[in-house]
Design brief:
single chain; alpha/beta; D-Maltodextrin-Binding Protein, domain 2; 8-stranded mixed sheet; 12 strands; elongated
């Protein structure tokens, strides 16, 4: 999954706390420079587009601090005050304060629509004879372990230099090319490649199961702790622009869930 990332006096309301005396002349966003579909230096990701929308709402130019989204991302960006907003993080993230969620999505199981197994989920006995793929260390690996499927599952690297490698794109291409039969991947990534390249793929949302890692996540924006007024403003902007945000997500093929955990209608 991924992250992106302000007015000395509120436009309406009282004075800000001491912690919130921050230069808000620009919307300073922290982002990975090479992490599509989320963000890149060319500003082609959906988090870049949502950041532009937030900048328009605040009447501020969007400026970026680029840093790879690896361990230390928040420590070296948001916490050092090089930037003020993370565009995408799990709601309730413990390492930063989060806003209200602005979308709900999930890990998916995906396969070729024209050649795929039409499996009902990782519990389907038919998967036992198929070639599978999963990014090592991600939640779907828990499901594959539960159903004794790891022995014929190809692992894809979780952490790489994204300037040169894209294991997630490799997995998608392996399914398309028939090198593996079924992939298990973060939904926004699988959905992005399916839509961008018009691929014949079926995406099936994975359901969280007791005793395994969670599959479905509400995604919010991240701010520093002790900046409640800034968080309130971001929440108000999200609420006001939610329809436009959702349209951007759909344009990038992000599978969106309703609150019952089912795919939302387009």
């Amino acid at each position: 999954m991924t992250v992106l990332f302000v007015l000395l006096v509120a436009a309406s309301g009282g004075p800000l706390s001491a912690q919130e005396i921050v230069d808000r002349s620009e919307l300073k966003v922290c982002a990975d420079p090479n992490n599509l579909p989320f963000s890149n230096e060319k500003k082609e990701g959906f988090e870049n587009k949502i950041a532009d929308l937030m900048g328009t709402e605040f009447g501020l130019k969007v400026d970026y601090t680029w840093f790879p989204q690896v361990i230390g991302f928040v420590r070296n960006t948001l916490r050092t005050r090089l930037c003020d907003l993370v565009m995408g993080t799990v709601a309730g993230d413990e390492i930063m304060q989060t806003t209200n969620p602005y979308y709900f999505t999930t890990y998916v199981m995906f396969y070729r629509s024209d050649k795929g197994p039409a499996a009902k989920g990782p519990q389907d006995p038919g998967l036992a004879s198929l070639r599978l793929g999963v990014v090592g260390g991600t939640p779907p690996a828990d499901l594959l372990t539960r159903y004794d499927l790891m022995a014929h599952t190809k692992p894809y690297a979780l952490t790489v230099d994204t300037r040169y490698e894209s294991p997630t794109h490799e997995m998608v291409q392996d399914v398309v090319d028939g090198n593996i039969d079924v992939g298990f991947l973060w939904g926004p990534i699988a959905g992005y490649y399916r839509k961008r390249d018009n691929l014949p793929l079926t995406l099936m949302p994975l359901k969280s199961e007791p005793g395994t890692a969670r599959m479905e996540y509400h995604i919010a924006m991240g701010v520093r702790a002790n900046e409640p007024e800034w968080r309130r403003r971001i929440n108000a902007a999200i609420l006001k622009r939610q329809a436009e945000i959702t349209a951007i997500l759909r344009d990038y093929g992000v599978p969106l869930l309703n609150e019952q955990g089912d795919l939302a209608n387009p």
